[in-house]
């Protein structure tokens, strides 16, 4: 009996991400935060996994109704710079598919092949209202911050091509429901600058910028002369063929480059680099961004940041302050807010961080946008998720109260119109050990 109970618990935990069918549903009576506006006593109608209308009035006949009176309805939150689905235990290397150490494959590293829809991190994040995530590869200076990798290099290793590699790999967008969680692979390239970047290039910031420009020149040469490359009729290049192919969209300005950078002067130099090379960038970290907020806004470059960073833990964060998000937003910069510890095990903290940003000057509406609409826009999914509007994915969360208030909890979470179980492994373990009785302890601890 005890073994049957244990097996049932394990199956229940794994079934939390199992497939289900989308329902036609109307969510009525709540305060609806669409991501761009507020509708009192609103009605959100979902059919075949998509939002078909957001407004006021009664639910259409024949639909299942979720009563949200006295509650708050929001789009599902979007975790950025995330490790969701790509890592289970950060200190267990075998469970981490976010960090690649083979310098013969750097820019071409595609983490989408290692995503796990049955990861125990996904249901926990859903309980914090997270329904989508931008999963990014790790490097020694990753903005997510929680990496147990003992290397400071993106693609470190001896021999091979460019040693070490300048690029950590390519990000992917996922949803946190169903057995097929991949939404789109290869949505952005990732590279460290600042202190992490200079370590990659040999110890000096100037060296990395020169090496980066030379790398883009080689990629453009390869793109123009693929036939000669195939015939081995051109000089040796410092990157593998796979890496050069992966970098062509970056060099042509079609794929954004997520740049980890914090110091104000480094941000200025990265903006200059983007202008000179004609590339599209996203700043990741930007701890001192408030010092050059007007320059970032003028360049129309978005920023991914952790709003509670307020300690000068090193010399590139001397001006860290919790008003960073508010200052950037006030200057007109499009911002997206991160969760904690790489936004994997603590991705649910996104809403708490947004609340902290509000307490330090970020308007409430801007904070909601920074965890819903803005991440979708930054990565090219404007109107597809992160917002309650006709045509968007049916990702909806019904909250007991203010979603940025820690005591508020979700009473319903839908992804693509499918209602998700409000359960996760941590809660199953809590209940198992709290109640005691048969199956509360592993068999080895029995008589």
Automatic annotation (TrEMBL):
Residues 136-155 are annotated as: Disordered. It holds the Pfam family Amidohydro_1. Keywords: Signal. GO terms for molecular function: hydrolase activity, acting on carbon-nitrogen (but not peptide) bonds. SUPFAM superfamilies: Composite domain of metallo-dependent hydrolases (SSF51338), Metallo-dependent hydrolases (SSF51556). Residues 1-22 form the signal peptide. It comes from the Bacteria. Residues 342-407 form the Amidohydrolase-related domain. PANTHER family: ALPHA-D-RIBOSE 1-METHYLPHOSPHONATE 5-TRIPHOSPHATE DIPHOSPHATASE. This is Imidazolonepropionase.
